[in-house]
Amino acid sequence: MKAFLVDRYAKGAVLRFGESPEPELRETDVMVQIHAASVNVLDAKIKDGEFKLILPYRLPLILGNDVSGIVVRVGSKVSRFKPGDEVYARPRQDRIGTFAEFIAMNEADVAIKPNNLTMEEAASIPLVALTAWQVLVERANLQKGQKVLIHAGSGGVGTIAIQLAKHLGALVATTTSTSNFDLVKSLGADVVIDYKTQNFEEVLKDYDVVVNSLGTDTLEKSLRVLKPGGKLISISGPPDPAFAKQNSSGWLLQQVVRLLSFGIRRKSKRHQVSYSFLFMTADGEQLAKITALIEAGVIRPVVDRIFSFAKTNEALTYVETGRAKGKVVIAMR
């Protein structure tokens, strides 16, 4: 099958377009003919080698973390899906590879595609929506009437997280540039901060939750907007000891991770708030709950651009500029 592959980790490297064997179909797997995939910042970080310590992939690696398509074969123990089903998913982290013609995934990671979305729209959803769900519902336990700051509201995670937080009944603040004000307000943001002209940490106070997807400087400033007992949750790092343990990292890597997050954990304790790092995990059941919200009109996808499969490298380059509003999608057919 045709695929885009990482041959070596390097910043600025391009993916190689070539032939790759069709993936093995295990007994609990579904084989999906890929109709669309979306590009995430995570793809760029994997390509650049930023995660090679905690995600030790064997190269060459087919990149890609989101998929929509049609089931063409199922393993002998699959009970939830059949050939012909239209599905979408974020494959689990050790079985990525959606920049290709086919992918095999464990049925537990897959959900039926929302019936009101195109394949391209559906492919934009899984990773960012699961991230938003796991941050806001599972980790933050966000409640009606609470206040949440979602950084980078016009980004992939931000556009979904704003909608989910509003559905949960929270007051939502977000940071973005002036050109994106109308977009984030249309998604439900109550307070919008222009990060180019305003210091969010001077405007906001007594927040219950901050969702960070930006750098260390923003992370530390975010401590100032939280009330005692608040939660600072980062999806961009640094990873914390709980993540290293959950990821079954060895003793040495656990110590490295402990050191990486020591500063922000110490500052959080001083501010009487908690810090945690979240690396989202594949979950078909959660994705099915998100499907229900999409079909009910609670959450809608935000797609910036759609590239052809042949232009996968151009799509990745565009995502790396950081200017995309919502998601960038690759249409396979």
UniProtKB/TrEMBL annotation:
SMART domains: PKS_ER. It holds the Pfam family ADH_zinc_N_2. It comes from the Bacteria. Keywords: Oxidoreductase. Coiled coil: none annotated. The keyword Glycoprotein does not apply. GO terms for molecular function: oxidoreductase activity; zinc ion binding. InterPro entries: ADH-like_N, ER, GroES-like_sf, NAD(P)-bd_dom_sf, Quin_OxRdtase/zeta-crystal_CS, YIM1/Zinc_Alcohol_DH_Fams. Residues 12-330 form the Enoyl reductase (ER) domain. This is NADPH:quinone oxidoreductase.
